Amino acid sequence: MNLILQGAAARADIERIAALAQAESITELGVHAWRCEGALRSEETVAALEAACQAAKLDYTFVMPNQRLSDFKLLAMDMDSTLITIECIDEIADMQGLKPQVAEITEAAMRGEIEFRESLARRVALLNGLDASALQRVYDERLKLSPGAEKLIAAAKQAGLKTLLVSGGFTFFTDRIKERLGLDYTHSNRLEINDGKLTGRVIGGVVDAEEKKNTVLRVCREIGASPAQAIVMGDGANDLAMMSVAGLSVAYRAKPVVRAQADVALNFVGLDGVLNLFDQAA
């Protein structure tokens, strides 16, 4: 197999870590990315790599040679703390002076300790009475794309993939990001607003873990693709269901429960680290 190493490390560290997998050769893919060819994967090797890469702040992934991005047909992404750096609901709550309370519930939900529907209802209820202008302030002042987001999406489009943003967050943000990045599909929750103020409720069905999975499956059907042709990226426990049906699941700066179940874990590099998993020339 090929072992892909990514992160800000010295060449000596790369050579030392490649040797743990008995790699036959090392090719530099770009800044802070290397492909170690002919690597051997075993339980012992993975355990050694886990410790060495964590210490060197490197991401590692075993991949089959000659895999191409164009082998896939869909790139599906979670929004909060995946495509963007913030949890929007936490920042909205900050406008109410309630960020610590809401963030605590968010963290528990992302770790899988609270069922997502319950956590969403509890968090949104705390926003009751907040002026809806707070949503635009969060978008303008705090929302930032994760490193490498635009490069990843541009490459996916170039390779012919459709793009989906599926989120337990809110349409106010997913609609704007869809337009900003030229995404093909979005699906998220709609906040109820009356007389310019949030009511503390969402309108319609809740986009929870099961709905996220169903959305990925639905979009795959619409574009004539198998779920095995989907790349799905997320960070929290409510992303696991949709990640489980994907041909390639990517945990980005994710909770331990998500990293443990994903095909790929990116902890130190940006979203565009996904691109180094593929042989772009093939």
Automatic annotation (TrEMBL):
Name of protein: Phosphoserine phosphatase
Family: Belongs to the HAD-like hydrolase superfamily. SerB family.
Top EC category: hydrolase
Gene Ontology, cellular component aspect: cytoplasm
Biological pathway: Amino-acid biosynthesis; L-serine biosynthesis; L-serine from 3-phospho-D-glycerate: step 3/3
Residues at the catalytic site: D78, D80
InterPro entries recorded: HAD-like_SerB (IPR050582), HAD-like_sf (IPR036412), HAD_sf (IPR023214), PSP (IPR004469)
Pfam families: Hydrolase
SUPFAM superfamilies cross-referenced by the UniProt entry: HAD-like (SSF56784)
GO biological process, one term: L-serine biosynthetic process
Source species: Paucimonas lemoignei
GO MF: L-phosphoserine phosphatase activity; magnesium ion binding
UniProt-listed Enzyme Commission number(s): 3.1.3.3
Keywords, in A-Z order: Amino-acid biosynthesis, Hydrolase, Magnesium, Metal-binding, Serine biosynthesis
Cofactor(s) this protein requires: Mg(2+)
Lineage: Bacteria, Pseudomonadati, Pseudomonadota, Betaproteobacteria, Burkholderiales
Reactions mediated catalytically: O-phospho-D-serine + H2O = D-serine + phosphate; O-phospho-L-serine + H2O = L-serine + phosphate
